[in-house]
Amino acid sequence: MSQRRGSSFAGLSVAIATPFRDGEVDYPRLKEQLEYQLAAGTTCVVPVGTTGESPTLTHDEHEKVIAETIQTVAGRAKVMAGTGSNSTAEALRLTKRAEKEGADATLQVAPYYNKPTQEGFYQHYKAVAEAVSIPVCVYNIPGRSAANIEVETIQRLSEVDGIVMVKEATGKMDACSEILGTTDLTVLSGDDSLTIPMMSVGAEGIISVVGNVVPADMLAMVKAYASGDFATALQWHHKLFALCRNMLGLATNPIPVKAAMQLVGRDTGELRLPMTPLDDAGMEKLTATLKQYGLLS
């Protein structure tokens, strides 16, 4: 198969956690976190996805976080703006605004709560793709959105101009294989711990949560695999595995990653309700994981 349509986004994308201080978005801290990503060589940053607590940001905050991200990054990496919604009209408005601000692509989460039919998914994504000229990444995460975008629907969507990527977070390797075998879409892993397994069947990288904490290590793993150095990639996979599992398994994302960022001094750890801090048992396990990895003494 010829080069995949979204392959310019291959590598490490990091789903940026939105920092808060005293209930407000902490924009100076956001800039610090973006500079940390740029220094590590992160390919693409993804503001206001699920990790960025998009459901609890106001519309003004949502737009400002994207704008501040684009201005800070200033072309030094790509910016894939999280502008999805369970309302097609709202997704269109947010995406058009992000395009106007200079976003390089849009991450479109599956409309949540509504539980659209497969035709509803198709029409939703088609409407977004036809309204803007920036590339669209379809984000399939049934565990958070309550409905799965079936492979057949993704195959249909692959024929829509502008839809070039899938963030595949179903945890189903068969779905990943089928998408890659039947379309020219770029697939990016939506689960940190499945990055190498998914790359082994043709995925080209990861939209990472753990990358908020160890972007250089995640990038080293992805680059090693992409260059054919499978032994090194596997070493990184095993080193990162416990960190990846606990960052996504101890509690709902982004609770554990924000706790980890607080422990290593990169965030206040503040969340917005209904998200609540990691409990004592979870914090104990996370602290042990970070110590084992070498991030805490």
TrEMBL record:
<dbReference type="InterPro" id="IPR005263">
    <property type="entry name" value="DapA"/>
</dbReference>
<dbReference type="Pfam" id="PF00701">
    <property type="entry name" value="DHDPS"/>
</dbReference>
<keyword id="KW-0028">Amino-acid biosynthesis</keyword>
<dbReference type="GO" id="GO:0005829">
    <property type="term" value="C:cytosol"/>
</dbReference>
<comment type="function">
    <text>Catalyzes the condensation of (S)-aspartate-beta-semialdehyde [(S)-ASA] and pyruvate to 4-hydroxy-tetrahydrodipicolinate (HTPA).</text>
</comment>
<feature type="site" description="Part of a proton relay during catalysis">
    <location>
        <position position="50"/>
    </location>
</feature>
<dbReference type="InterPro" id="IPR002220">
    <property type="entry name" value="DapA-like"/>
</dbReference>
<protein>
    <recommendedName>
        <fullName>4-hydroxy-tetrahydrodipicolinate synthase</fullName>
        <ecNumber>4.3.3.7</ecNumber>
    </recommendedName>
</protein>
<comment type="subunit">
    <text>Homotetramer; dimer of dimers.</text>
</comment>
<keyword id="KW-0220">Diaminopimelate biosynthesis</keyword>
<keyword id="KW-0456">Lyase</keyword>
<dbReference type="GO" id="GO:0009089">
    <property type="term" value="P:lysine biosynthetic process via diaminopimelate"/>
</dbReference>
<feature type="active site" description="Schiff-base intermediate with substrate">
    <location>
        <position position="167"/>
    </location>
</feature>
<comment type="pathway">
    <text>Amino-acid biosynthesis; L-lysine biosynthesis via DAP pathway; (S)-tetrahydrodipicolinate from L-aspartate: step 3/4.</text>
</comment>
<dbReference type="GO" id="GO:0008840">
    <property type="term" value="F:4-hydroxy-tetrahydrodipicolinate synthase activity"/>
</dbReference>
<feature type="binding site">
    <location>
        <position position="51"/>
    </location>
    <ligand>
        <name>pyruvate</name>
    </ligand>
</feature>
<comment type="similarity">
    <text>Belongs to the DapA family.</text>
</comment>
<feature type="active site" description="Proton donor/acceptor">
    <location>
        <position position="139"/>
    </location>
</feature>
<dbReference type="GO" id="GO:0019877">
    <property type="term" value="P:diaminopimelate biosynthetic process"/>
</dbReference>
<feature type="binding site">
    <location>
        <position position="207"/>
    </location>
    <ligand>
        <name>pyruvate</name>
    </ligand>
</feature>
<keyword id="KW-0457">Lysine biosynthesis</keyword>
<keyword id="KW-0963">Cytoplasm</keyword>
<feature type="site" description="Part of a proton relay during catalysis">
    <location>
        <position position="113"/>
    </location>
</feature>
<keyword id="KW-0704">Schiff base</keyword>
<dbReference type="InterPro" id="IPR013785">
    <property type="entry name" value="Aldolase_TIM"/>
</dbReference>
